[in-house]
Amino acid sequence: MRYLFYIGFIVLSLMIVSCGGGGGSSSISSTTTVSINLGHREITADMQSIQAIPLEVSCIEISFSSPGETTIEKEICDFGSEAIEEVFEVKNCRLWHITVEAFDENSILLFTGDTFAHFDGGDQKVSINMVSVEDITPPVFNGIETADASEDNILLSWSAASDNVTPAPSIEYLIFMSDMPGDVFSSSSPDVFASPAFSVTGNTSFTVSVGYSTTRCFGVRAKDEVGNTDSNNVVKCATTLSSPIQQEYTLTVSTSGSGSGTVTSSPSGIGCGGNCSEKYDEGTEVTLTAIPSEGSTFVAWSGDCGGGGDFSHVNTVVETTNTVNITMNDDKTCIAIFESQQQYTLTVELEGCGSGTASSNPGGINCSGGGAGMPEPAAIAPSDCSETYDFGTDVTLTATPDGIYDFFNGWSGGGCIGTGQCQVTMDADKTVTAAFDCGE
């Protein structure tokens, strides 16, 4: 169905003013009040005529211009689909050029129309036929301007295109790519890009990732909103940089001390003793883990992995965290220090006339006997009264009398006193005495 916009100019103030300049009266106005009624006329199937503004129209711009006069302009939006009425005051005795343009919500021109009218204050009506804008003109575009390569990217850039209808932010840019200049816009083999590889709207640059040491050629064409595309054949080629040489550094691991153990790495590569050296890329963070052998204990790290301490005595207390992280920004050496696990002997002695048992936790000691002060029964020789423990082990001793006539009289030696439990820290060979007495 075809639409026809119309504008009717109706004089609201009937003021007859001569344009000849003779005998003008100061009581007569020199302007004409013009009312504009705007809509479209649609002839329906039953030949009914209705008036409304097409739904696709979002804004209407109206202007009055005349030589030597200030142009009168007005933009009208948000009117729905109903007809609108606007009022203008224009000077008499002037030839006015009236233009009307209708735009959609994206500011794309849909309809346009214009006419000339001479107003003299008399009763007058002027119509303007609004015609649909048919866009058959492609954008004006100069094509791609630069293709700048970096390590593995190519940055394309161009100046914005212009179009007679489509606004610049809505122009689409089709990006063609090939590995040969002559194949950018036309395919000569199945391996060449025959259609746009990328597209962007409104932008004037685009970055393509192609990898290291790669040559690509590009062309860009502009397309308006109805599909008109320019036909420039400008091509730009660029080659990305060679892959940078990754610096490598060597990590060397060794062990020391009276004990033994192994060191492993993450990322893998080191399993020492065995493979105690490995190359890693610059910046790699390597985690080393020290694993002591049976009978040994890990003490600390030294060298580039830090740690340290005085290891001349087995009793020296040092940091014992067995994992360490090191960043490979140079050749590095790390030393894992293992010491033999020192052990000490704890001996329990029983004394007194009574009998009883002294037991240990952790186990190993279950020393029972006594009764030497009693005529009957005969004295029982103590048994299982000695055990060896690792350095630093805390051993708890508990004393239990044997019979109703026996009672525990207390501890002595090894730092223990009183009749409660005795706790001994094994940092040397130690002897503890448990005294059991007897009743009369």
Question: Features of this protein?
Answer:
mainly beta, elongated, Immunoglobulin-like, 5-stranded antiparallel sheet, single chain, disordered N terminus, 440 residues, 4 domains
Strand order of the largest sheet: 5-4-7-8-9
> What's the total count of β strands?
33
What is the multimeric organization of the chains shown? Answer: single chain
* Ends distance: 131 Å
Q: Mean of the pLDDT scores?
A: 79
User: What composes the largest sheet?
Assistant: 5 strands, antiparallel
Our count of helices gives 0
Cα-atom radius of gyration: 51 Å
CATH fold title of the largest domain: Immunoglobulin-like
How many domains? Answer: 4
Q: What does the secondary structure layout of this molecule look like, with pairings?
A:
Layout: E1 4-11, E2 31-43, E3 49-52, E4 59-65, E5 72-77, E6 84-91, E7 94-103, E8 109-119, E9 131-132, E10 146-149, E11 153-157, E12 172-178, E13 198-201, E14 205-209, E15 215-223, E16 236-239, E17 248-256, E18 261-266, E19 271-272, E20 277-281, E21 285-292, E22 296-303, E23 323-327, E24 332-340, E25 343-351, E26 355-361, E27 366-370, E28 380-383, E29 386-390, E30 394-401, E31 406-412, E32 422-425, E33 430-438
Parallel strand pairs: 17-24, 25-33
Antiparallel strand pairs: 1-2, 2-3, 2-6, 4-5, 4-7, 7-8, 8-9, 10-11, 11-14, 12-13, 12-15, 15-16, 17-20, 18-19, 18-21, 21-23, 22-24, 25-29, 26-27, 26-30, 27-28, 30-32, 31-33
